Q: What sequence folds into this?
C-alpha cells in the first residue's frame, strides 16, 4: 500500500500528517515505511530522529564532447529536447543543469564523440525509527537530500521510490506544489492525502493539487489543517466537488507549540492516535483492527 501526502502549497502540514500517520500505524504493529520525498527541504527526520544507517550518492550521467572526434554535425544538438546542448562557434557546449540524462545524444552521435560522465546531484539516506511511546513496530525511514543549487529533484524522488516495500504501508511525504517532483512522488500511489488549510491560498493551491491527482487517476481525500469553525469555506467546496474530508486538525496554540518543539500529536495528545487510525480506516477498511478505537 502506498499513500502519498501532497499539498498545493508549502506550510500546510504535510509533515505533520505523514509523521503522525506513520506513528499511529506503527503503534498498531503494522510494517510502515516513511519516505520523505520533499528532497529540497526534508524535515520528517526532525520529528522522528531516525538512526541513519546508510547513505547513497545519487548521480546523473551528463554528456561530455570529445573535440577531436566531433565534426559539429549538430545531430546531438537538434535531438536534445531540453536545450542542454548548443553549437557555439567551433564547439558543442553542454549545460549540465538542463540535461535530463536520457543518453540520446551519445546513442545518436555518428562519430562516437559523446561520452557520459556521472555528476552527483544529492543523496539518499535510510535508517530506522524505534517504536514510539505506544510500542508497536519500528518505522523504516528514508529521505532524499538535493545538493545545494542542483535543480533536478525528480531523479532523487525516483531513487527513493525504489525503497517502497511490498506488504508494508508506504507513506510518501511529497514536496509542496504540483510540479514534476511532486507528480513523480504521487504517480502510482494507491491513495493521495491532500493537505490544505482554510485560507484563500490554501483553496487556490488545493484546486491545482486536485487537478493533478485526478489527471493521474489516483483516489484521494482531504485533510484540513489549522481548521476553524466552518473550515473557511473548504467544507462546502469539498462537498460541492465530491472530495471527501477525512480529517480536520483544529487551529490550536497547543498544537502549534508541540510542532515548534519537534513533538508529535499522536504521542503527546493520545486522542490523535485514534483519529489518525480512523482516517486510515476510511482509506483502507479492515487494515487496522479495533473498531472500538475508532
A:
Amino acid at each position: 500500500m502506498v499513500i502519498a501526502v501532497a499539498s498545493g502549497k508549502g506550510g500546510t502540514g504535510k509533515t505533520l500528517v505523514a509523521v503522525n500517520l506513520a506513528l499511529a500505524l506503527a503503534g498498531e504493529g503494522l510494517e510502515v515505511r516513511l519516505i520523505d520525498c520533499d528532497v529540497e527541504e526534508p524535515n520528517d527526520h526532525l520529528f522522528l530522529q531516525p538512526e541513519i544507517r546508510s547513505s547513497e550518492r545519487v548521480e546523473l550521467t551528463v554528456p561530455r564532447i570529445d573535440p577531436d572526434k566531433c565534426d559539429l554535425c549538430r545531430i546531438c544538438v537538434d535531438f536534445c529536447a531540453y536545450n542542454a546542448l548548443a553549437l557555439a562557434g567551433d564547439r558543442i557546449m553542454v549545460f549540465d543543469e538542463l540535461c535530463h540524462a536520457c543518453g540520446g545524444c551519445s546513442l545518436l552521435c555518428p562519430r562516437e564523440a559523446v561520452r557520459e560522465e556521472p555528476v552527483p546531484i544529492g543523496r539518499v539516506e535510510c535508517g530506522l525509527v524505534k517504536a514510539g511511546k505506544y510500542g508497536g513496530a519500528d518505522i523504516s525511514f528514508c529521505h532524499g537530500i538535493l545538493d545545494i543549487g542542483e535543480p533536478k529533484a525528480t531523479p532523487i524522488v525516483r531513487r527513493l521510490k525504489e525503497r517502497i516495500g511490498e506488504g508494508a504501508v508506504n507513506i510518501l511525504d511529497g514536496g509542496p506544489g504540483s510540479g514534476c517532483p511532486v507528480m513523480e512522488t504521487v504517480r502510482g500511489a494507491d491513495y493521495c492525502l491532500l493537505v490544505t488549510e482554510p485560507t484563500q491560498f490554501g483553496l487556490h493551491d488545493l484546486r491545482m493539487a486536485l487537478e493533478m491527482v485526478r489527471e493521474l487517476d489516483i483516489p484521494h481525500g482531504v485533510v484540513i489543517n489549522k481548521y476553524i469553525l466552518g473550515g473557511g469555506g473548504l467544507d462546502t467546496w469539498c462537498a460541492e466537488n465530491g472530495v471527501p474530508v477525512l480529517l480536520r486538525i483544529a487551529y490550536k496554540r497547543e498544537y502549534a507549540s508541540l510542532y515548534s518543539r519537534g513533538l508529535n500529536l499522536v504521542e503527546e495528545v493520545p486522542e490523535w492516535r485514534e483519529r489518525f487510525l480512523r482516517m486510515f480506516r476510511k482509506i483502507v477498511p479492515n487494515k487496522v483492527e479495533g473498531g472500538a478505537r475508532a
